[in-house]
Amino acid sequence: MWDKLAERAEEVADRPLLDLMGPERARDFSVEALGMLFDYAKTNIDNSTRDMLLGMAEAAELPARRDAMFAGRKINETEGRAVLHTALRNLDGHPVTVDGQDVMPEVLDTLARMEEFAQSVRDGGFAGQGGAIMDVVNIGIGGSDLGPAMAYQALGPYADGPRCHFVSNVDGAHVHDILAPLDPATTLVIVASKTFTTIETMTNAETAKAWMAEKVPDPAAQFAALSTAADRTAAFGIDEARVFGFADWVGGRYSMWGPIGLSLMIAVGPADFRAVLKGAAEMDDHFRTADPLRNMPVMLALVGIWHNQGCGYATRAVLPYEQRLARLPAYLQQLEMESNGKRVDMEGADLPTHSGPVVWGEPGTNGQHAFYQLIHQGTRVVPCEFMVGREGHEPELAHQHRLLIANCVAQAEALLRGRSFEEARASVADAFDGAELDRQARHRVFPGNRPSTMLVYDRLTPRVLGQIVALYEHRVFVEGAILGINSFDQWGVELGKELAKALDPVLSGKAGVEGKDASTARLVGWIRRDPD
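The chain above was modelled as a monomer; its predicted structure follows.
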């Protein structure tokens, strides 16, 4: 299967993409759904290749795997867990069972508790020991940080509640710099850790508690916890009324829809938070019911499979032309690379092909003045995934938004078309001649024929944000299903954490470096200032 896909990619590698651009191509190689347009016409996928990719999805029994996920079956086989982040946005409450039990009553009860608490923070019913809550500090890491931090920035126009701040790094500079300008007496701290043992999060939580204790008599009274470890949150001093738990079938990088989104709910209000959930639920329904050819997550995933496993492109750039989506590429780095960065299949056998690509990116137009040079003229091909809204939130600056859109569409066109040597030569013919003209022209050649996709939405509302994030979640699922891997465990993060815990007493001088490799031992010695 993978060999045939690579052979197909090699067959068409030198084909000019412009040769594919017949009058119906743009319509046939795009998907419209939920008020969004996903265009993949600027790729080297033709009807034959698309049929091959759709056949791979069928061979992977994608519909059955998808249905198993939504039904609450334990598709996370290495951890023996269901995968039901979709239940967190099931606002209709139709039954979803795990081990024969409907989980929806508890999900909806937790959502209602979150809404009651969030509203009380927003209207002053819950106050700090110095007055109404003015600032909320979310302390987490990974999915407990990236999701709400990304969404809070994305929904800036809707954030009419307390200011939100996010601490994740165990580097003391992070928590120090976030807390320094705040007033402890009017700050709420949310500690996001399912087990309440995550070392980075709990270290920062203790630091925040000590900071608050300097100004308020009962610091724990201004803490909330997003955790299932009731004994540990109680030992920390947090009242159970401010503890919001979630089940083990919600993975960290899929958790912003539930209690991990509490900071976002406080910022934008329960109604707009529900709009985020509604948008995601709409994408869930689309993913479950749409024909594969007109299924946006499926086609986004198949384009990704073609570029990575077929063409061998090792990275992909996510390029939102939306400043408020500045954190989306970082969010997708975790979502995609932690999910599909695996080397064995569900049976533990080595994969016959590469797994997930390196995902990276920055907002346009900033990136145009940074790394687009490599994208346009570098020796490696980087598939680009552009996204842009038809409208911004600032009507008085509509002319700037038109310029933003023009840049976005133009970059995709430039990647497609390129600039030939003859065109480059003509562009500088007035300034140079002879050998120097040819030399200067060669520097101005753009190879072109570089693939990109475009996602266009109306405006970045809470509902649209939910749709976009759910789109990429399901894209990860489809790619993982075709690769035959478990997209929902993350053993790759464990080894470094174990070794870091063992190194802490070594660095403090309480233990020696016996058993460490020579490089690690010398690094520790140099950091401790040990004599050679």
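The radius of gyration is 25 Å.
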